[in-house]
## 1
Amino acid sequence: MASLPQIDSLKTAQHEMPSASKKRKTPWFNLPFMLVVALLVGYGLVVVYSAVSVDADYSFSRQLMGVAAGAVLMLVVWRVDYRALAGFTMVFLIINVVLILSPHIPGLGTDAGMGAKSWIKLGMQIQPGEFAKVTVVLMDASIMARYGGKLDDLREYLKALGLMLVPFLCIMTQPDLGTGLVYLFIAAVSLVAGGARPKYLLITLAVGILLVVAVFALDEVIKSSTGEYKLLKQYQRNRLLVFMNQDSNNLTDEGYNLKQAQIAIGSGGLFGKGLFNGTQHSLGLLPEAPTDFIFCVLAEELGFVGVLGLLALYIALLLICFQIAYNASDLFGTVIVMSIIGMWLFQILENIGMDCGLMPITGIPLPFVSYGSSFMVVNFIMLGMIGSVWSHKTKLGH
């Protein structure tokens, strides 16, 4: 990924198309891409069906509706020429702010639990911060496309970074740390793929780590004087403490969740207990099984072989997408696809990692597998964006 700026510097600018004599028509339908997507979505539906069959709080038909709506939107977005969106940075920024802050509107927003206002009611509950991922990708890509694959001016770097941090700051007013981390990862991948100077990236990372440490330290000082934490919610602190000290006799909900997740994964063995035969979620021992801990359901019922099947599908999808990014006709398209790849990779590693105890619990869902119609629709829209980059690419002749 680090070599992308050098590759993209040889491409034409985003508003310049190759001459008509050098164009070669690209097939609209990418068979390997769609085949992997179909297998992945189908696999996810099977696992979700098993997870929701014993939980009346979830509806499998709603998940199917999310897949159907997402498939339609994917085809619509696929047909749109993504290159027409390259110059709308500020429009995307405004959309991001409106979407993410909409749950704060009186009478519109609703509590998502643990004090977070992340949902709105429009006939049905919608998570606008989830849909903002689409405009965050487009905004960050359009920002980086302006620099032609080389961003080595400090002032311009700080300007780009400042714009990319706006969605994160907005989502933290809910607060939704999991979605905020996804926004940050999209921004980080966009900066790398768009050619930001490595020195600036390393300094930014170091400053970010120092800020996290400072927040925890300051919160301790505040608690010593006021008796309560102000900067971080108690459950957020618990999640980090459980991750750092998993062997302690932790009686928090987060500690219990992690132990039950690990039991479910370990009990699956090589081939699993079989679909609908998982005991951890059917007995109600595994919390939020269809969403945050869906990987545990898969591991318990389909075992290590089932896990390998899922990982193989993810690897195939990411490799196909990487090839599309590499062959994109402009930097804008490359950064769009690379940002989506980075987003999915982060969500996959975080979700599976938190279930295994290798990452802090954040509530980040598993792409194309976790229950959630909004989440499914957004992922399908991302597929449509990748398809648009594929179908509107122009190959140079030799």
## 2
Amino acid sequence: MLNAIWLGFFFIAFVTGLYRLLVLDDVDVFTDMTQALFSLSTTAFEISLGLTGILCFWMGVMKIGERSGFIDILSRLLQPLLKRLMPDVPEKNPAFGAIIMNLSANMLGLDNAATPLGIRAMQYLQEINPLKDTASNAQILFLVINTSAVTLFPITIFTYRAQMGAANPTDVFIPILIATYASTMAGLIAVSVMQRIKLYQPVVIGYLLGFSAIIFTLLRYFSNLDQQAMQQQSSLISNITIFTLIIAFMLGAVKRRVNVYESFISGAKEGFQTAIMIIPYLVAMLVAIGVFRASGALEVFLDALRSTLTSFAIDTRFIEGLPTALMKPLSGSGARAMMVETMNTHGADSFAGRLASIVQGSTETTFYVLAVYFGAVGIKKARHAVVCGLFADLIGIVVAIAVAYLFFG
């Protein structure tokens, strides 16, 4: 899939460039495309280099969280819900622990840490799967919840926004929280309908009402503020929450007599390796997208969509953020590169830049997660996993656009 997408960017850019040269007499188009190759290669490396420190820090913090027992607390809090959503999984199966650790990493915005945990959870679920080449109900539910990205702390997005010069990198925190909640609920409902899971069980209703109450309280409160106050308070809550989380990890580790410093160093080393791994992927995708844009192909598509919407008197500012939304289900690195490219072109604090950031945090990469997680255990028949995952993506993107207008419109 990624191979086809990457080649597609270059081939479409080349054909569009030939059309502009031969038909429109644009003699600068191939110069622009070549310059994009070099400039965006440099930009991608600089961004990756800038991420190294923050990834080391947050992977170190995550390691402290693991050793402090924070994951065990989450397990005890969430296991009653998971047991009812996955009735086919035995009560003491280690899959629950791996699932909760995976979801915890996603909540913290640590995508690279979440992937190995997710694969491990899928392996545990595969051990009790009677049809080894076909996804079980529990595997599908886990995958869809995973792809809908329960992101409470999108630290990586904040880091990219800071790298791209945002005045207040965390001002998209509350919008992301609302969008990711919507996508997760959509994915859960879609799977429940397909698998006939009874969501009206008292325990399930209690958890969902609790989560919903938090989200809707935030939404109601912030919707009554003017735009400037909304942005300021959203950022304040984000920063307080993030720093409180760090202190909670450390206090838990001290209570357990864990060497906090050594735990941090251990995790930070993993963060450094992760940062190194990101560089070639970001360079590849950002260069391909840059060439695609420089050729004019992206503008042709967006202009056609903009003209259509304008004829119906529909606000078209959201269109500049659509490249990230269109790429998100296909490629995490591609969507990340689209987000960075959008902020690079329009500005991190532009409406398009903020919308791209919200979209990036609203869902996970459906096809990538499906390929990695199911591929790791040899599943060939995904059943309704793709449909439910894409439905969650669609709802997350629609809500992301809506809250972008609410907070930054």
## 3
Amino acid sequence: MLKCRQVTRLAATDDYMELGFLKKAEFKLHLLMCSHCQRYFSQIISMGKEARVASKNHEADAKQLIRMEDNIMEGLNGSEN
């Protein structure tokens, strides 16, 4: 069974999309059982949707989007400690 740390890392990086059948089933099972990871995953999905909307509304240049993504990933990696 995947641990919370593994699930949150997979969710934050979208790597769960590339998991094999069994690992993807473990990921989904963990989300069904763990309300904390379920909430985190939901927040990650919402942030992605909002970021796409914001980027469509404001013609942000590629460098700015890369900086934003780097800042988000640094924040997520820092919260693991």
